[in-house]
Amino acid sequence: MKSSTSSANILCLLKFFYNDTFHGLFNRPFFKSRMNRYGLGILLIGIYLGYFYLNMVQLSTLSNNAVEADETTRLLAGKMTLSSYFNVVFILGTFMFILINGTVSLNRNSLFFAKTLPFSEREVNISQRLFKLSVALVFFELLMIIVAPALKLIPMRLGTALLVLITLHTVFISSFWLLDCLHATVLHRVTGIKRTIFSFILDLVLAGLVTLHLLKTRFQVDVWVSTLPYSILTITLVMLMTSLVVGTIAYTLHAVFFARNHLYVRQNYFKLGLPAFNIGLATTMPAIIRSKNFLYFWALLGVMSIGAWYQVGWGGTFQLWLFLLPILGVVTITYADATLAVRKLYGLYRIHPLMELMSLLAVAIILMAPALYVGIIETNSLNPYMYGINIFFAATIAGFLFPKSQSNINETIASVLTIILIVLLSVLVSIDGALYPTLAILLGVLYLILKKEYEVAK
User: Fold this and answer.
1) pLDDT tens string 235-254
2) What is the DSSP secondary-structure string of 340-393?
3) CB atoms inside a 10 Å sphere around CB 74
4) pTM value?
5) Residue 317 near residue 308 (C-beta atoms within 8 A)
6) Per-residue model confidence as pLDDT tens digits over 301-359
C-alpha cells in the first residue's frame, strides 16, 4: 500500500462503500415484493410519527407550565435543560459509537476493493472512520427531528437556537471522535482474538461509566450549570469551542499516530465441540449458540451477576436476571446470516418453512428456560418467559430482513430495529395476555419471510 493521503482517494473509497451498502441493503427476497417494502416502510414511519406525536403532547403540557413561571425560574430551568441536552447528546454519542463500532463492518466486496487497489493504509482507515461517523449521524438526525422542538422550552432567540443546534452536532461528533481515538490508543498494538476481547471489555467499561453518568452525575452537572452567572448564549459558545477543539485534537491524533489498517474478514462464529443438537433441524441450535454474540452475552451476564451478588446479594441478582435473561433472544439476530449459505440445500433434504419455524420455536422454548425459572420465582408469572420468546423471534425477523453479510450497515439496522421492537414489547408486558397474540403475529411474519427465502432458493 502507498503511504500518502489523497482526499480524492478517500472520496472514491467512501463512494464505493455507500454504493455497496445500498446495493445490498434491500437485496433480500422479502423486499422483492413492492407490498412488503411499502408495508414495512409505512409501519416504521407510523411508529416514528406516533412517538413524535407523544413527544409533542408532552412538550405542549410543559410549555403551558413554563409560561406560568417567572423570568428567573425560566432562565434557571432553561440553562438546566440546555445542560441536559449537551449531556444526553454526549451519552448518546458514546452509546452510538459502541453500537456502530461493534456492528458496522465492511463486507467482502468492500474489503476486496479496499485491500487490492493501491490505496494507502491511512486513506482506508480514514474512509472507514468517516463512513462509520456518517452512519451514526443518520441515526442522530432521526432522533434530533423528534427532540429538537423541545428547544422551545429554553428562553432564547432564533440565532441562539440555531447555534445550539450546531453545538449539539459538534458535541456528538467530538464525542464520537474522542471514543474512536481512545479505542485506537488502547488497541493500537493488539491484533487477532485479543483485539476482539479487549475491545469488548473496553466497550463494557465505557458503557458502565456513561450509564453511571446518565443515572447520577448528569443531574449534578445540570444543577451546577443552571447556577452559573452566564447567559445561555455564553454557555453555548463555550460548549461549541470546547467540542470543536476536543474533536479536532482527537481526530488529528488518530489520523497521525493510529491510522493502522485493521480491515479483515472477521470470524463471527467459533468452533464448539458439543454433541449435535437435532431439535427439528440439525443446523438451528448450532447456528445460534456458536455465535460470538451468544458468548459475549453470557460473559456480560456472568460479570454483571457477580457484581450484583457482591453488592446486593441474591435478591438483587435475581432482579437483574429478571431483566437480562429475556434479552438473551437478541443473539438470534445472526441466525439468518449463519444459515444463508446452507439454506440453498434445504430443498434437497425436503426441509420446508414450517419445519424450520417449528425448529426455531423449540430452540426458543429451550433457550428461554432460565427466564421461565426466574420469572416464576420472582413474579409468579410467565410474562418474562413470553417476553424473551417474543424478543427471540423479533431479533430473528430483523436478522432475516437485514443479514450482516449483505451490506456494510445491515447489522446496525437490524440491531436498531430489534431495540425498537424490544421497547414496544416491553410495553406489552404490563398488559395481561398481550404477549401471546403478539407471538402469533411474529411467528406469522417469520413464516412469510421463510417462505420467500425458500422460493428464491429454488
Assistant:
1) 889 999 999 999 999 988 88
2) TTGGGGGGGGT--HHHHHHHHHHHHHHHTHHHHHHHHHHHSSSHHHHHHHHHHH
3) 16
4) 0.74
5) yes
6) 777 788 777 777 787 788 878 888 888 888 888 888 888 777 777 777 778 888 888 98
